[in-house]
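Question (not urgent): is this output format expected?
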Amino acid sequence: MPALAIPAIAAGLGVLVVRRRRRRASCHTQAAPADLGMPTLGPPPKSSGSQTTR
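Got this back:
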Protein backbone atom coordinates (compact mmCIF):
# COMPACT_ATOMS: atom_id res chain seq x y z
CA MET A 1 0.00 0.00 0.00
CA PRO A 2 2.72 2.58 0.77
CA ALA A 3 4.13 1.96 -2.70
CA LEU A 4 0.83 3.15 -4.23
CA ALA A 5 0.57 6.19 -1.95
CA ILE A 6 3.87 7.72 -3.11
CA PRO A 7 2.92 7.96 -6.84
CA ALA A 8 -0.57 9.19 -5.88
CA ILE A 9 0.90 12.01 -3.78
CA ALA A 10 3.40 12.88 -6.53
CA ALA A 11 0.61 13.02 -9.13
CA GLY A 12 -1.52 15.23 -6.87
CA LEU A 13 1.37 17.64 -6.32
CA GLY A 14 2.03 17.71 -10.06
CA VAL A 15 -1.59 18.63 -10.78
CA LEU A 16 -1.46 21.44 -8.21
CA VAL A 17 1.76 22.86 -9.67
CA VAL A 18 0.42 22.82 -13.23
CA ARG A 19 -2.86 24.49 -12.22
CA ARG A 20 -1.03 27.18 -10.27
CA ARG A 21 1.30 27.94 -13.21
CA ARG A 22 -1.62 28.16 -15.67
CA ARG A 23 -3.55 30.48 -13.35
CA ARG A 24 -0.56 32.84 -13.03
CA ALA A 25 0.00 32.91 -16.78
CA SER A 26 -3.65 33.65 -17.55
CA CYS A 27 -3.71 36.76 -15.35
CA HIS A 28 -0.97 38.63 -17.22
CA THR A 29 -1.72 40.82 -20.21
CA GLN A 30 0.56 42.20 -22.90
CA ALA A 31 0.87 45.96 -23.25
CA ALA A 32 -0.35 47.01 -26.70
CA PRO A 33 -1.88 50.10 -28.28
CA ALA A 34 -5.65 50.06 -28.41
CA ASP A 35 -7.52 51.30 -31.48
CA LEU A 36 -10.76 52.74 -30.14
CA GLY A 37 -12.20 53.61 -33.56
CA MET A 38 -13.03 57.22 -32.70
CA PRO A 39 -14.80 59.18 -35.47
CA THR A 40 -12.96 62.07 -37.10
CA LEU A 41 -14.37 65.56 -37.41
CA GLY A 42 -14.04 66.80 -40.96
CA PRO A 43 -13.80 65.42 -44.48
CA PRO A 44 -12.45 61.88 -44.96
CA PRO A 45 -8.74 61.68 -45.84
CA LYS A 46 -7.86 61.32 -49.50
CA SER A 47 -6.59 57.88 -50.41
CA SER A 48 -3.68 57.45 -52.78
CA GLY A 49 -4.88 54.08 -54.10
CA SER A 50 -5.83 53.04 -57.60
CA GLN A 51 -9.45 54.12 -57.19
CA THR A 52 -10.58 56.89 -59.51
CA THR A 53 -13.47 59.22 -58.88
CA ARG A 54 -15.79 60.32 -61.69
